[in-house]
Amino acid sequence: MLPELFFGYFAAVIILLSVIVITRRNPVHSVMWMLLLFFHIAGLYLFLNAEFIAAIQVIVYAGAILVLFLFVLLLLNLREELKVKRFVGAWPAGLFITTAILVIVLGAVKSFVPGPAGKYSIEFIKQETHTKALGKLLYTDYLFPFEIASLVLLVAIIGAIVLAKRKTRSK
Amino acid sequence: MTNLTGFIMPDLGPVMPEIVMTCLALLILLSELVIKRKETIAFFSIVSVAIVTYLLAGSTGTTFNGMFIADGYSLFFKLIFMLNVILTVLISVKYIVIEKVNFGEYYSLILFSTLGMMLMASAGDLITLYLGLELMALSTYVLAGFLRHDIKSNEAAMKYFLLGSFASAFLLYGISMIYGLTGTTDLHAISSYISQKGLSGNPVLTLSMIMFAVAFSFKIAAVPFHMWAPDVYEGAPTSVTAFMSVGPKAAGFAVLGRVFLTAFGAARIEWTGILIPIAILTMAVGNIAAISQTNIKRMLAYSSIAHAGYILLGIIAGTSEGMASVLNYLFIYAFMNIGAFAVVIMLRSEGFKGDNISDYEGLAKTHPLAAALMLVFMFSLTGIPPTAGFMGKFYLFMSAVSAGYTWLAVTAVIFSAISAYFYLRIVMYMYMKEPKTAVQLSASPGIALALAITVIAVLLIGVFPSKVISVARIAAGF
After folding, report:
1. Consecutive sets of 10 residues in chain B, 478 residues long: mean pLDDT of each?
2. Are residues A74 and A1 in the same domain?
3. Which has the closest alpha carbon to B410: B399, B423, B401?
């Protein structure tokens, strides 16, 4: 009973907070609500016995990325932003489609049969410790995807520089 | 303990072309510091692609525990990607000077995007597939917004980025469902688990296949996930549009074919039920919406949507013959579509946009050669013999008929007849109207070479189609 309650609380609050984040008029308020949202997601990770990911979630998302968001927002002219309408006119259609998807997903989930459990059980992780198990996997079995991920980050940096830093109409 | 992890260095042979491609793309990125003439960088990127193509032939096999598969199927797709880069670079050299965005990063981003496509074609694992897709997409988003001072280009990049991230979210949702259901992300393991446990028909599996179909439909611009295409194709630099209309689309089909035929092979009845409506809608909306366009880039965007619909027929057929006709068509499509875009690019000159369909009025009088080339590409896109487009469509529709989807093939032929209206309208404008404005052509050796390659290929494959389709048949036998 307790796990269900715990999960139910976090899931419900996450949905509620997401709605609050997108409906706030002031972007700074949105970011603040998002901070709370990220903490709840970290809570969900804790609940799944993924302490390392929970810590990373707090440090990277709540700590670093949101602070950057705030910096950018403070550089913008928020007075203009406050007058802009939050949603486009077609939002009822969007709401309808999302509700339909939700109903379909809820209907399908009933027949879900979990696949076979892998070797990374909670006991195994407890014995190995999180960082060690994760690091080992990333640098052995998942070495290839790990390298591709590094390229994705590189392209993101190049892209940011090309789009934001390059002088326009040079030459 | 000597070896802490029991890690054995995987065989790097099959992945060698990708490794070399990465190194060369990084070199080209750095070379901009020392090389001031951008044409030299363009030349180097073509040389790098040639080196990678040379390496492709000798690199086959599976490595990284099945995460990377280099087989005939991926090889054929990679050849299309290489071709795409060469033709795009050739048509870009002069164009990006005219647009005043002559930066070296342009070429390295094209190479990185192609690297992402290569990884997608070779992905044997959903994680590799996803990361390859992101690498491809991220580079293309930046390329779409390369004209920083142009508001339409900004809009294109923004729309492409937002909707692309949305599609990625769907893909990840689908992957997470499959992982929960089967406990693995390996495509072959998923396939054997599904047939072992008799999971086909399970609603969660079907739902996850829908999620995959949504994400891949976005990449190939299939209806109803095509909304981004016209705006992005119109706003992006024309050379990038040419690149996007072939590369990411082919890569989308590569993963669509591999995932649906390999991993979901046992659940074929379900996914054909998902793909058939998408294919019909795509052909209908693409061809009908193209009729009312006044901007040639938008028209070609709708045309590329319609072509995605035709190609889906080969996937729906589900046979190796169907897959062979998909490969064959994508190969032909690369030539005819980039050829058409090369003509569009030629009309762009200093202070003249040249992307309205009315700009083509009387082109045959002022520039007969350019008009004749456009005529060939328009005929090929319509599917009129003796051009390659006809043979491509012929094999696609034949594969659908022999798989028992005669009615679908008939529908496709009807829509393809509708498409004649807007393709031949350009021909009519060029040959039967008087020129209104004096259109200046901005030709360059690069574009001339690209046009020569594409027009020769379109005519040659149209007359002697057996060579390409027989290679495609060998490649599709996975």
Report:
1. 64 91 94 88 93 90 90 94 95 89 90 96 95 96 91 92 94 94 92 89 91 94 92 94 95 94 89 94 94 93 95 92 94 95 90 85 90 94 91 94 94 94 92 84 90 95 90 83
2. yes
3. B401
List CB contacts (< 8 A) between A158 and chain B. Answer: 29, 105, 108-109, 112, 142
> Which stretch of DSSP H or E encloses residue B308?
helix B296-317
In a domain, A94, yes or no: no
Q: Give yes or no: residues A61 and A129 share one domain.
A: no
Domain termination residue (choose one: A62, A83, A104): A83
Q: What is the pLDDT of residue A170?
A: 46
Q: Are both A4 and A77 inside the same structural domain?
A: yes
The predicted structure's pLDDT at residue A167: 64
ipTM for the predicted complex: 0.90
User: How many domains does chain A fold into?
Assistant: 2
The minimal CB distance from A140 to the residues B5, B115, B193 is found for: B5
Query: pTM of the prediction?
Result: 0.93
- Please say whether the beta carbons of B362 and B430 come within 8 A: yes
* In chain B, residues 28-87 whose CB comes closer than 8 Å to chain A: 29, 64-65, 67-68
Residue A90 lies in a domain: no
B320 Cβ under 8 Å from any chain A Cβ? no
Residues of A within 8 A of B182 (CB-CB) are: 115
Query: What is the residue-wise DSSP string for A126-170?
Result: HHH-HHHHHHHHHHTTTHHHHHHHHHHHHHHHHHHHHHHTSPTT-
pLDDT at B2: 45
Angle at B63 between CA B62 and CA B69, to 5 degrees: 40
The single residue listed with the structure tokens 């690069």 is B446
Q: What is the pLDDT of residue A94?
A: 87
- Is A115's pLDDT higher than 90? no
Specify if A97 maps to a domain.
no
The residue whose two tokens read 């693995």 is: B184
- Asked if residue A92 is part of any domain, the answer here is no
Distance of CA B315 to the CA centre of its chain: 15
Q: Has residue A143 got a pLDDT over 70? A: yes
Question: A148, B179: Cβ pair inside 8 Å?
Answer: no
Mutate to test the interface with A, among B125, B134, B206 (most CBs of A within 10 A): B134
Q: Considering only the beta carbons, identify the residue of A112, A118, A142 that sits closest to B204.
A: A112
Contacts of B15 (CB under 8 A, 6+ apart): A144, B59, B63, B64, B68, B70, B122
Question: B318 is written with which tokens?
Answer: 């589900």
Domain interval for residue A18:
1-83
Q: Which residues of A touch B142 (CB under 8 A)?
A: 155, 158-159, 162-163
Name the helix (H) or strand (E) containing B68.
strand B68-70
CA nearest neighbour of B104 among B146, B140, B50, B152: B146
Statement to judge: residues A72 and A150 lie in one domain:
no
What letter represents residue B269's amino acid? I
Same domain, A141 and A69: no
Q: Once rounded to an integer, what is the mean pLDDT over residues A20-49? A: 90
In the block, residue with structure tokens 């406990």: B183
What's the CA angle centered on B228, arms B224 and B233, to 5 degrees? 130
Pair (A17, A73) in one structural domain? yes
> What is the C-alpha separation between A165 and B6, in angstroms, rounded?
45
